[in-house]
């Protein structure tokens, strides 16, 4: 592995970054599609069915591993690139007006990426890991609603998504540039499409928690699909809230 | 010593081919055993290093710049001539030859110039094969433009950056040879002496400009391609680093110096604007294709140029030289401009005239003009703050090129066996005035197509004797160089090197500039002598020898300029006629055109160094014109 | 005009170096930036101090020798302008100017503001050429090149190798320089036979020199004095992928 990384050229590394990045963009689209099921007025029936499928299907399991691999490659490669890039200029400039020649989100991909990584950990712990390894929520829908009922978590979620957006504004078009796809006519359209993509993904993702937060939440929980309200209330919700507390630093009610 | 130019017998058209047929060759296995040092990496030096490397010689290439690709050939703008006759406008090898001889005011060797014209064709082929992006027509064929002193369109160009593209082409060939191990480059190295063993050039002493180390390099032959000495005038279009040190130190070791007074003034440069100006910037002669030179008819016309109507303008070049108009040769245009400015008719009473492209912009559109000259216009605007698209450029002549240089024979060998001189640093092809777009042609012809043949002849005769860097002559030269460095650092006077250089430049511009007289030359010689003495006693160079020390580098160069300046003035004094760039006010027609004296001065003035205490000795190489008639040069 | 200068002084490659403040007076608008430094150096010399070393040669924007990081910008604040073509009229009287050398591991400082850019030469030597010997060239007009291709090739070939792209890139990446060379030859039919081995070798040489990786910020394109664009970087990557995928 080490050998492969060393032998990769700078162009190759960028190609891998671009490729994995675009793959992750695709993942975001699928993820958002699933999340939209939360908006259906069916008390979470569709969403729970969807999450049940995600949990049990072996195809999804395989895809998950691929996704994990892609994430790991993207992140490890980012670390390698960042390290190399930092060592390429051991002495920084005393005065550097970088804002005159480049956008700051293009310069701070490591930072935005780092924040996204933290978000990812929290997000995975709250949902995927909690669900799969600790709790086995009877209603994922209810769990989601409960989590987003916490204003601090909502705020945390929205702020993190801003960073995802900033990461993508540069990342999306940059990956095409990394593949060498730059055409005087088409490339501006890619840039526009990238911006549109970011706006859609961003507004899609933040719309859901905001909607859930303002929607009447308690009824939804009480009439959830499996009707096992008490179980959730009693034990798991506490866990979920505790998690939320840890990561949002709030004093959410339990 | 007898000068023998080794010009082959026979018909002009056959001289080069019959000469080549008679040259000795070195067999491929032996070529590896020969080492050749090349000084300079401009067009001549890079092309020589590349072509000799291709043949299998071991080449060591030296340049003072941080990279070979920065040599000043890179700044050539307009183009390169070649007798391709792609335009069907009557061009031919003979016509290029004739234009060049006539442009040089009949002070160049017929045989050399004919060979140059012959080879011009192959240069374009070579450059195109290397990937030089010359301007093209929509058909995909090569485009041409016109240059001064000709009535045909034979100049190939790459926008206003032809020199850059040709140099990068030559450097790329050299890079290939570096990778193949045939050429080794020494950037940041300045040659400070040439070493002779038994009368033959056998190596050099160079200073590593970063560490200050002075070291000897032995070889079987040495090629100088170190460019011209235009910087002697301080303000010139040359790069700040361009210098005469290599050729001057070769001269002091026995290489003869030819026609030092032939220094070209380029008519279209941006005028001097400030007291601390460090260099002058050329606006390509190509602009005269589409531009018209004029001044207001009325001396005291203070209107801005756009407001001056056609009737109040004096297109003095077109009026004086109706046949060639704005495209008269450089010396003619420069003198005409100087003359109107001396009469007080310059723009706004100053030393400048207008070069106006508005007619061409109206005729062809801004886009076409911007395609042809865009980069020049931008450069002009950056320097002056005025846009040539809106207002005419202001121009004035400036020192640009040196036709004079080390004397070489037909084989481009100097009077020191084994020491060759290529490109601007030799004297061979341009006579008393060089035509535009011919310098690139000469540099590349010398490097690609002449030296590979003639050097093999020398090396074959030499035999594969071992080079010997331990010879005492190397130690002696090293010590001399070290002593000079020590002297500069220990003088601790009151004046900076640049201060001396500026004063020298002024003395030369006033006394040995565009027009010269017996009196001005004698005055200049006196002043130069005084300045040189003061320099030795009063120069101030700080810092140390063991690191990069730009003042120390300059001190060496300026001390050589101070010596060369005197020779330049002496040569100008000895040439008691006017020809080409050399305008002695005593010798002019009623219309202020230069008046040659073919009876007495149809020769190359060749100077031999006689030691620092004796005046140099002048030899004459009489120019024999077998093919063309000497005639008064007329562009009317 | 007068200026307060804060200039990086460093005796040699081993020295740690530091900023030193200077004041220059009597500067006129017509003077170039380097002429302003000449004035400073004349002054320093007369005071018996070591003048500031800075790289320069042609002073007409084509040799690529000069290169200073002025107030946080490579070659100063103007677009498509080398340091030597920067004139004092572009600055305000009394302005404070911070002058630094190019900063990159691959461009070690030699002295003061002069850096060693030989890494560029080694990249060129790795493949920036067409393998044609003198004498073997075909007739020039036998190679037809569409005007558009020739123009694009020329646009890439105008690179002067000053290193501003490396200097300004937050990662000190040299890919704009390399891509200009690769693009120039890839666009010309003469360069096509060797295009694959050329791009592979040049990228390899670039990576060996310790430059950073491109992150497509586009800063190089803005600061390049010759207007080389990101399109040439994209071309380099296409060329590279094609070369890698070619059996």
What does it look like?
The complex is a heterotrimer of chains A (254), B (636) and C (247). With 254 residues, chain A is mostly helical. Helix content of chain A is 78%, strand content 0%. Chain A is built from 11 helices and no strands. Chain A is globular, with a radius of gyration of 21 Å. Mean pLDDT of chain A is 84; it is low at 217-254. Chain B is an alpha/beta fold and 636 residues long. Among the domains of chain B are: 266-398, Flavocytochrome C3, Chain A, domain 1 (Alpha-Beta Complex); 476-604, Fumarate reductase/succinate dehydrogenase flavoprotein-like, C-terminal domain (Methane Monooxygenase Hydroxylase, Chain G, domain 1), CATH 1.20.58. Chain B has 18 helices and 21 strands. In chain B, the strands form 6 sheets. A 5-stranded parallel sheet of chain B has the order 5-2-1-9-17. Chain B has a 5-stranded antiparallel sheet with strand order 11-15-14-12-13. Chain B has a 4-stranded antiparallel sheet with strand order 16-10-20-21. Chain B is globular and about 75 Å long. With 247 residues, chain C is α+β, with helices and mostly antiparallel strands. Chain C folds into 2 domains: 3-111, Roll (Ubiquitin-like (UB roll)); 118-245, Alpha-helical ferredoxin (Fumarate Reductase Iron-sulfur Protein, Chain B, domain 2), CATH 1.10.1060.10. Helix content of chain C is 35%, strand content 11%. In chain C, the strands form 2 sheets. A 5-stranded mixed sheet of chain C has the order 2-1-5-3-4. Chains B and C meet through helix 3, helix 5, helix 6, helix 12 and helix 13 of B and helix 1, helix 2 and helix 3 of C.
What's the short story on this structure?
The complex is a heterotrimer of chains A (about 250), B (about 625) and C (about 250). Chain A has about 250 residues and is mainly α.
CATH class of chain A: Mainly Alpha
Task: Please count the beta strands of chain A (DSSP E, at least 2 residues each).
Answer: 0
CA-CA gap between termini of chain A: 46 Å
Radius of gyration of chain A: 21 Å
CATH topology of one domain in chain B: Flavocytochrome C3, Chain A, domain 1
**Can you list the strand order of the major beta sheet of chain B?**
5-2-1-9-17
Count of individual domains of chain A:
1
């Amino acid at each position: 592995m080490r050998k492969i990384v060393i032998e990769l050229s700078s162009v190759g590394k960028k190609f891998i970054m671009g490729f994995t990045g675009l793959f992750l963009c695709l993942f975001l689209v699928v993820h958002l599609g699933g999340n939209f099921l939360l908006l259906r007025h069916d008390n979470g029936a569709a969403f729970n069915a969807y999450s049940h499928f995600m949990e049990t299907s072996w195809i999804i399991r395989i895809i998950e591993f691929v996704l994990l691999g892609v994430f790991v490659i993207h992140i490890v490669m980012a670390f390698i690139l960042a390290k190399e890039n930092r060592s390429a200029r051991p002495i920084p400039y005393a005065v550097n007006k970088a804002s005159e020649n480049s956008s700051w989100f293009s310069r701070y991909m490591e930072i935005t990426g780092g924040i996204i990584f933290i978000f990812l950990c929290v997000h995975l712990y709250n949902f995927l890991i909690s669900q799969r390894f600790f709790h086995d929520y009877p209603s994922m829908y209810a769990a989601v609603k409960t989590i987003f009922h916490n204003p601090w978590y909502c705020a945390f979620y929205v702020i993190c998504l801003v960073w995802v957006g900033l990461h993508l504004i540069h990342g999306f078009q940059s990956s095409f540039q990394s593949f060498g796809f730059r055409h005087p006519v088409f490339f501006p359209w890619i840039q526009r499409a990238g911006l549109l993509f970011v706006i859609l993904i961003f507004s899609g993702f933040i719309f859901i928690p905001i909607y859930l937060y303002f929607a009447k939440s308690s009824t939804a929980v009480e009439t959830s699909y499996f009707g096992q309200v008490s179980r959730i209330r009693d034990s798991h919700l506490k866990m979920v809230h505790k998690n939320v507390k840890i990561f949002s630093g709030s004093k959410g009610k339990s | 010593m007898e000068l023998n130019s080794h010009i082959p017998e026979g018909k002009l058209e056959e001289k080069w081919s019959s000469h080549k047929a008679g040259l000795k060759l070195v067999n491929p296995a032996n070529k590896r055993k020969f080492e050749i040092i090349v000084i300079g990496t401009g067009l001549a030096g890079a092309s020589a290093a590349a072509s000799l490397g291709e043949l299998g010689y071991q080449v060591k290439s030296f340049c003072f710049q941080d990279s070979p690709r920065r040599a000043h050939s890179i700044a050539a703008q307009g183009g390169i001539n070649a007798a391709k006759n792609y335009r069907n406008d009557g061009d031919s090898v003979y016509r290029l030859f004739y234009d060049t001889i006539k442009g040089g005011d009949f002070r160049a060797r017929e045989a050399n110039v004919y060979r140059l014209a012959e080879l011009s064709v192959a240069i374009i082929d070579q450059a195109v094969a290397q990937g030089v992006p010359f301007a093209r027509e929509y058909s995909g064929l090569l485009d041409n433009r016109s240059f001064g002193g000709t009535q045909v369109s034979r100049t190939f160009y790459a926008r206003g950056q032809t020199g850059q593209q040709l140099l990068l082409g030559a450097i790329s060939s050299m890079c290939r040879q570096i990778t193949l191990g045939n050429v080794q480059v020494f950037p940041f190295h300045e040659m400070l002496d040439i070493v002779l063993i038994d009368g033959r050039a056998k190596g050099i002493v160079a200073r590593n400009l970063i560490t200050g180390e002075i070291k000897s390099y032995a070889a079987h032959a040495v090629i100088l391609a170190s460019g011209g000495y235009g910087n002697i005038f301080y303000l010139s279009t040359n790069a700040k680093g361009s210098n005469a040190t290599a050729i001057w130190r070769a001269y002091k070791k026995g290489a003869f110096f030819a026609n030092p007074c032939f220094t070209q003034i380029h008519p279209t440069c941006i005028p001097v604007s400030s007291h601390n100006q460090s260099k002058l910037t050329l606006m390509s002669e190509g602009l005269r294709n589409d531009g018209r030179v004029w001044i207001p008819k009325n001396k005291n016309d203070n209107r801005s140029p756009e407001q001056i109507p056609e009737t109040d303008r004096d297109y003095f070049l077109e009026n004086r030289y109706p046949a060639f108009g704005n495209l008269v040769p450089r010396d003619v245009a420069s003198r005409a401009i100087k003359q109107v400015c001396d009469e007080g008719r310059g723009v706004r009473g100053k030393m400048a005239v207008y070069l106006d492209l508005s007619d061409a912009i109206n005729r062809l559109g801004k886009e076409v003009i911007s395609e042809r000259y865009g980069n020049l216009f931008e450069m002009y605007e950056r320097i002056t703050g005025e846009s040539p698209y809106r207002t005419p450029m202001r121009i004035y002549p400036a020192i640009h090129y040196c036709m004079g240089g080390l004397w070489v024979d037909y084989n481009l060998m100097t009077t020191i066996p084994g020491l060759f001189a290529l490109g601007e640093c030799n004297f061979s092809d341009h006579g008393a005035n060089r035509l535009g777009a011919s310098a690139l042609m000469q540099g590349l012809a010398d490097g690609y197509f002449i030296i590979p043949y003639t050097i093999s002849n020398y090396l074959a005769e030499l035999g594969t004797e071992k080079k010997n860097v331990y010879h005492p002559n190397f130690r002696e030269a090293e010590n001399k160089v070290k002593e000079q460095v020590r002297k500069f650092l220990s003088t601790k006077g009151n004046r900076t090197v640049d201060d001396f250089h500026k004063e020298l430049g002024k003395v030369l511009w006033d006394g040995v500039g565009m027009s010269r007289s017996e009196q001005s030359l004698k005055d200049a010689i006196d002043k130069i002598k005084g300045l040189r003495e003061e320099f030795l006693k009063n120069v101030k160079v700080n810092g140390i020898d063991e690191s990069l020390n730009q003042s120390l580098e300059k001190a060496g160069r300026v001390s050589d300029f101070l010596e060369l300046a005197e020779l330049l003035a002496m040569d100008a004094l000895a040439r008691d006629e006017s020809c080409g760039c050399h305008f002695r006010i005593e010798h002019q027609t009623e219309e202020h055109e230069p008046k040659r004296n073919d009876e007495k001065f149809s020769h190359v003035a060749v100077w031999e160094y006689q030691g620092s205490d004796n005046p140099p000795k002048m030899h004459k190489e009489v120019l024999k014109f077998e093919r063309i008639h000497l005639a008064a040069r007329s562009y009317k | 005009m007068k200026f307060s200068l804060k200039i990086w002084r460093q005796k040699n490659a081993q020295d740690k170096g530091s900023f030193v403040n200077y004041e220059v007076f009597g500067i006129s608008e017509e003077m170039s930036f380097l002429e302003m430094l000449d004035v400073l150096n004349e002054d320093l010399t007369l005071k018996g101090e070591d003048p500031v070393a800075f790289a320069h040669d042609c002073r007409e924007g084509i040799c690529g020798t000069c290169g200073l990081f002025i107030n946080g910008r490579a070659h100063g604040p103007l677009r498509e302008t080398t340091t030597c073509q920067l004139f004092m009229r572009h600055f305000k009287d009394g302005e404070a100017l911070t002058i630094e050398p190019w900063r990159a591991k691959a461009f070690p400082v030699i002295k003061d503001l002069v850096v060693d850019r030989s890494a560029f030469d080694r990249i060129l030597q790795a493949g920036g050429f067409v393998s044609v010997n003198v004498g073997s060239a075909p007739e020039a007009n036998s190679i037809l090149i569409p005007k558009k291709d020739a123009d694009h090739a020329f646009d890439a070939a105008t690179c002067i190798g000053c290193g501003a792209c490396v200097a300004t890139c937050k990662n000190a990446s040299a890919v704009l320089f390399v891509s200009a060379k690769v693009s120039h030859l890839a666009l010309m039919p003469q360069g096509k036979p060797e295009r694959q081995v050329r791009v592979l070798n040049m990228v390899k040489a670039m990576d060996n020199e310790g430059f950073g990786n491109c992150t497509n910020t586009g800063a190089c394109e803005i600061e390049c004095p010759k207007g080389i664009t990101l399109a040439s970087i994209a071309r380099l990557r296409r060329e590279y992928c094609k070369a890698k995928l070619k059996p």
